[in-house]
Amino acid sequence: MTVTEDTLLFIEENKRRYAELKAAGQKHAPKALPGPTPRDGSPIPEGAVLHAETIPGGWYWSTPLKAGEALRIRLPHGPAAVSMIAWAAGDKSERLNYADTVKVQWTSALGKGRVLFSDMGRVMFSLIEDTTGFHDALVGGSTAASNRARYGEKALRNTRDNFILAAGKLGYDKRDIPPALTFFAPVRTDADGVFHWLEGKRQTGDFVDLRAEMDLVVALSNCPHPLDPEPDYAPPAVEAIRFRAPAPAADDLCRTATIEAVRGFENNAR
Amino acid sequence: MSKFFATPVRDASTAVADYFVPANAPFSCLVKKGESVRIVDLEGQQAVDTLFYRADDFSERYSSQDTLRVQGSAYVSTGTKLISSEGNLMLTVTADTCGRHDTSAGACSCEANTVRFGHQVKYLHACRENFVIEVMKHGMSKRDVVPNINFFMNVPVEPSGELAIVDGISGPGDYVELKAEMDVLLVISNCPQINNPCNGFNPTPIQVLVFAGEEG
């Protein structure tokens, strides 16, 4: 195929534009983001708690979350991993999309100041507080098969089955279950792309605060991450607290730190 | 870039089906257990966004996360086992002349494009448009469209967690071949994206060949 002069110019123009966007996303945005929240920082304002739930090790929970409410997921009893999926309230076909979330923000390293996208180019959550900065966006939660491979032939609860149960109780089915994000799962790749678990990146008292940016339905699963090298299956209970978040100010970090987030919120407002 | 041929290399003239998929277009076909499917990047640097569904139960489908977990690595090449949402083996990558394929970054959509590149690009043909059109021919809907595998798309994931779509490394005629371990519906969006380097900003056609199983 011969490429015309016009096509070559078009390609060059798009190439230049992409290089600029990539530089802005990778080189500038991270510098605008703060470090992790101190473990004793950001107390929930007096009277703001709407509901608090303790999710036993191995179990799941689901909750509606209205725009402006936030969900604190906390580890009061030791290191745990909490997988999450979410749907737009009233339209289960719009759901959390990890691939768009990492691709749009030029990183799989989610932390304070980042946002989580639906598959419709809208912001579902703002990560307004986060004490670790180590979460897994790529590998997903445990399954019956991954539990068997890790722990042998025991009947142990897993995240896939937990999400099937959560979806079933909401009147959804397996086709509605998107891939998951897992908080407090310190997974990174090496130079060859091989996944590694970074020990010591989470501690008792760690938490994330997720502010809902649209009306949502959220499901959580408290099961060990499949890459967690801990030989025993002994997930501790975790705490989930739904509370009224302070209204975002005009210079709200998550809404202003990156141009991608700005455009996502413009989509939310339409 | 090293090559990843697996032997024996099949003769294209022995294919039982031979499909030409134009630039930007959707495509689907059935691949039976034991058959192999070869996806050929005819002109090089073309991303081929691909989904698989179990042929007799579309609620079981390709799972990028299960695939990444099972292989323990962010990149797809020869030997990679493609895993379903039910934890079953769907296909195995048996040959790959390119060496680098992505399953972390999913497909482009009109909506995500507005966030990535600006609202002015909303009305450009995108992979999810292809997927929705194609899966609806089989009685499915948008909710069946999940993060996919991107053959020939190059998305390095850095130790820092950073990732970006960078220039593809496939040349004209490079191919990937997969053996079906169950009857599957193959659905392709031959990516129309012109805002990133996944296809060199210039979408081109591909070829899909199906080979009979060795035991006939």
TrEMBL record, chain A:
**Entries under PANTHER family matching the protein:** RE64534P (PTHR31527:SF0)
Which region ranges are annotated with the description Disordered? 22-45
Question: Could you name the domain of life of the organism this protein comes from?
Answer: Bacteria
Q: Could you identify this protein by its name?
A: DUF1989 domain-containing protein
Which species?
Answer: Xanthobacter autotrophicus (strain ATCC BAA-1158 / Py2)
Q: Which InterPro entries match?
A: DUF1989, UAAP1
Identify the residues that the record assigns to the DUF1989 domain, covering every copy. 53-217
One Pfam match: DUF1989
Automatic annotation (TrEMBL), chain B:
**Where does the record place a coiled coil?**
none
A Pfam match is DUF1989
Q: Which InterPro entries match?
A: DUF1989 (IPR018959), UAAP2 (IPR017791)
* Source superkingdom: Bacteria
Task: Tell me where in this chain the DUF1989 domain is found.
Answer: 21-185
What's the protein called, per UniProt? DUF1989 domain-containing protein
- The species this protein belongs to is Xanthobacter autotrophicus (strain ATCC BAA-1158 / Py2)
